[in-house]
Amino acid sequence: MDQPLLSVRNLTVKFGEFKAIDGLSFDLYPGKTLAVVGESGSGKSVTALSIMRLVELGTRAKVAEGEVLLRRDDGSTIDLLKQSERAMRSIRGNDISMVFQEPLTSLNPVYTTGDQVIETIRQHRKTTRRDAAKRALEMFEKVRIPRPDKVMQDYPHQLSGGMRQRVMIAMALSCDPRLLIADEPTTALDVTIQAQMLGLMKSLQQETGAAVMLITHDMGVVAEVADDMVVMRNSKFVESGSVYDIFEKPGAAYTRALLASVPRLGSMKGKTEPERFDLVDREGM
After folding, report:
1. Residue 267 falls within a domain, yes or no?
2. How far is residue 228's CA from residue 213's CA, in Å, rounded to a whole number?
3. 3-state SS assignment for residue 36
4. Which of 5, 21, 249, 260 is most deeply packed, by most CB within 10 A?
């Protein structure tokens, strides 16, 4: 089997005395999609921000323990937690990129979408503005944005949520990262646009060969696009494995509760009102 592209070992993150992540470990392999799942507040987004070394910026957060090992092209590994901020600025975008949950708050409102992607490319590649603009247009076309030359002149508020998310994906993939972290990328989108976005990410992954770490609470999304999954609850690791194995035979009571909470078509047939959902005994988790 291939060596992991990313190995997280005993990651512990604290906000003051509160442990937002408590001893988390997992591996992500090249070309695979790993879903990190759990309810709100379980520590999924903090995990992603810790890998990117963004959780410490402007907060009281501190990575108290652990390793985040990234395998380089030459086969060597580096611990992201030991890199300087200058080194991380080079790694972000080049090796690891992130698509955030809400693109409207991630994009700068006073610059056009094209200018923002061009700036990202020029930050990481020694290139002229003209060549960067050509690359940006190419990426807008790759993420299936209609009339990409016009959209490059638009400001974020002029675009729909789905279009803004496509811009974020174009920006994240513009420098060919080996790992894409997507934090709830379909949460604010309607169902049909969600399906389009998931299909887009899957096809782009096949084209580029990038590994994807998908942060989500939606088990339907996990079943659609992920190869492997890690289940988290209350900042802690619950279980991990292939999506097929966990969906077929979940080992933890909490995972079974997550799967049982997914609405199923036809489940209300013959009933006049929803049935009460029995919460799993907390001690049994």
Report:
1. no
2. 10
3. strand
4. 21
pLDDT tens by residue, 80-117: 999 999 999 989 988 999 998 788 888 999 999 999 99
Residue entry with tokens 């389009």? 196
Whole-structure pTM value = 0.87
pLDDT single digits (tens) 8-65: 999 999 998 899 999 999 999 999 999 999 988 899 999 999 999 998 876 778 888 9
3-state secondary structure of 256: helix
* Residues 126 and 250 placed together within one structural domain of the fold: no
- Residue identified by tokens 């990117």 is 52
The Cα 153–Cα 161 span in angstroms is 17
How many domains does the chain divide into? Answer: 2
Domain that holds residue 205: 1-95+178-193+200-262+278-285
Report the alpha-carbon distance of residue 166 to residue 147 in Å, rounded. Answer: 13
Q: Are residues 111 and 89 in the same domain?
A: no
Please give the radius of gyration of the chain, using alpha carbons only, rounded to the nearest integer.
20
Report the alpha-carbon distance of residue 276 to residue 282 in Å, rounded: 17
